[in-house]
Structures are given as C-alpha cells and as structure tokens.
Write a structure and sequence with these properties.
- It is a single chain.
- The chain has one domain (2-36).
- The protein is built from 1 helix and 2 strands, in the order H-E-E.
- It has one helix spanning 2-17; strands at residues 20-26, 30-36.
- Strands 1-2 form a two-stranded antiparallel ribbon.
- Strand 1 (20-26) and strand 2 (30-36) form a beta hairpin.
- The protein is flat and about 30 Å long.
- This is DUF3489 domain-containing protein.
- InterPro entries: DUF3489.
C-alpha cells in the first residue's frame, strides 16, 4: 500500500496538476510529503 500511495502522490499530482512534491524523512514520522507553494 505504501508504494501505491507514494506513486499516486508523486506521479499523479505532479503530472495531472503540475504540483511540485517534496519528500523528507523525519525521525519518528518516516517519510513526509509536502506540496511546494
């Protein structure tokens, strides 16, 4: 499931909406995704 969600976030939003997605690994939280404004 994690790989599917990551693919949806990074690929789908970037291609369809032109949004820039960044990901960062945070201690205790794992990988955190955010939209660049």
């Amino acid at each position: 499931l994690a790989h599917s969600a990551r693919g949806l976030i990074s690929g789908g939003l970037k291609k369809k909406l032109g949004l820039a997605i960044t990901s960062a690994k945070e201690e205790g939280r794992g990988t955190v995704y955010s939209l660049d404004a």
